[in-house]
Design brief:
Blueprint lengths: L6 H11 L4 H7 L10 H8 L8 H11 L3 H8 L4 H4 L5 H16 L7
Helix pairs in contact: 2-3, 4-5
Length: 112
Amino acid sequence: MAEKQTFGQLIANARKKKGLSQKELAGKIKKDDGDPITPQYLNDIEHDRRKPGSPQLIGEFSRVLGLERYMLYFLAGQVPDDIRSRSVDLDKVSEAFAVFRRTLTDKNNKRS
């Protein structure tokens, strides 16, 4: 069974695998205004005291660390803007979440 991992843990582990300090990674992650996040903000994220505040930051973490962005959205408890902004049939949303849940809990689809 896969180990449960938080958004912060995933970011910290990926940063360490890349050999980056918190200060180095913080300098590469740009906010909406183009300014980098602070090392303290990154530290708070890595210790799960804060979540990424915007889809922009999730995209930046994905790009810089080479992580799948939908996995990051899931761990951050967010729905990507390109999906949330669509006008969709709510029955289809319900059906999609049911399939999603089954996929995650189906013991026959375990990944090793």
